[in-house]
């Protein structure tokens, strides 16, 4: 070994110099007292550091630092956590199961019921209005017809109920059931004694299946029908017989023509 | 698994010793060791059997210590005065380094010099392993050790003294 580096000196002091280099190092130190002094000081520093802090390593280890105990505690904590997870899974499972079993109860309410309820609500709200009973008045019935037809994506003419003693007040557009196009048209008629009848029309339901229903609903008489083009709900608080007369007149006028052939209603 | 816990157990005294020397506070040191062990137990799956458990544990401990240092940065350091023992054993020796003086000197070292110096001198960990634990190249470790020792030498006022030959 021709040259001894500082790192080698330190390694020797730390007892980390490889064995084969020891002889050369010792010869070097013997010839260089300063270097030997350095090494000795290094070693004294190390000794002092070990004297300072070494005793801690001989102390009894506190119980909380025993790996077995720590592992057991951690396992217990994990089990508790898994317990909660398991409980949550069971609860969610029960909820899903109950929901699935109870599904027919929620599905049992047919679309017609929703449409009738909407129609009755709209009737109750707007027949009570005087100045704002309708959005578009009957004096512009051509516009009303075209506007509502466009919005409902179907041809809608205003039924004429003069024979039954009713005149058209006007109509409005309403938000409707999403599965029936999301829009509904309400037409309002009034007779000489200010009795009002409303007609609630939406686009056809997705199944386009025909359906008919008479019902009493919150004190109102209701006649509902559906076909391949529209759904229509007639709502009024007239006596049942009079309601049937009005409703059948509306039905005749709105279903005139071959519905399935796709020709427009005359109205 | 039990084998693994046994391996941990044999390392606990050394971890405590190193943690105590780093923090100079018995409670902080043991908290550090407990955190280190818990982390090791929860991550035993990540342990590579090719590496030494000891080096892995010291790496975890050192990272936790550095994080704690960062968190308490500028919060002020507390030095437990009881931590500096009045040891009499080496005192009789000529040329011994005053221990209290040395303890104070170590405290003034930059953290990265302190952690390297203590790994090598106190724990007797081989240079290569120490460099791995700290996460630096071997050359960097050597230069940190050199600087740490030179600083201690200056701080403890022992540039040279007689009886060098008598000290092994």
Q: How do the strands and helices of this protein lay out in sequence?
A:
The complex is a heterodimer of chains A (267) and B (168).
Chain A: H1 6-13, H2 22-31, H3 33-53, H4 67-101, H5 103-107, H6 111-127, E1 136-137, H7 141-152, E2 166-175, E3 183-191, E4 196-203, E5 211-217, E6 220-226, E7 230-236, H8 240-255
Antiparallel strand pairs in A: 1-2, 2-3, 3-4, 4-7, 5-6, 6-7
Helix pairs in contact in A: 1-3, 2-3
Chain B: H1 2-23, H2 26-42, H3 53-71, H4 99-108, H5 111-121, H6 127-134, H7 138-155
Helix pairs in contact in B: 1-2, 1-3, 2-3, 3-6, 4-7, 5-6, 5-7, 6-7
Family (chain B): Belongs to the sigma-70 factor family. ECF subfamily.
Domain PhyR sigma2 (chain B): 9-61
Protein name (chain B): Sigma-70 family RNA polymerase sigma factor
Describe the structure.
- The complex is a heterodimer of chains A (267) and B (168).
- Chain A is of the alpha+beta class.
- Chain A has helices spanning 6-13, 22-31, 33-53, 67-101, 103-107, 111-127, 141-152, 240-255, and strands at residues 136-137, 166-175, 183-191, 196-203, 211-217, 220-226, 230-236.
- In chain A, strands 1-2-3-4-7-6-5 form a 7-stranded antiparallel β-sheet, with helices on both faces.
- In chain A, a hairpin with a 2-residue loop joins strand 5 and strand 6 (220-226).
- In chain A, helix 1 (6-13) packs across helix 3 (33-53) and helix 2 (22-31) packs across helix 3.
- Chain B is mainly alpha-helical.
- Chain B has 2 domains: 1-77, Rna Polymerase Sigma Factor, Chain: A (Orthogonal Bundle), CATH 1.10.1740; 92-168, Winged helix-like DNA-binding domain superfamily/Winged helix DNA-binding domain (Arc Repressor Mutant, subunit A).
- Helix content of chain B is 62%, strand content 0%.
- Chain B has 7 helices and no strands.
- In chain B, helix 6 crosses helix 7.
- Chain B is globular and about 50 Å long.
- The model of chain B is unreliable at 84-94 and 160-168 (pLDDT under 50).
- At the A-B interface, helix 1, helix 3 and helix 4 of A face helix 1, helix 2, helix 4, helix 5 and helix 7 of B.
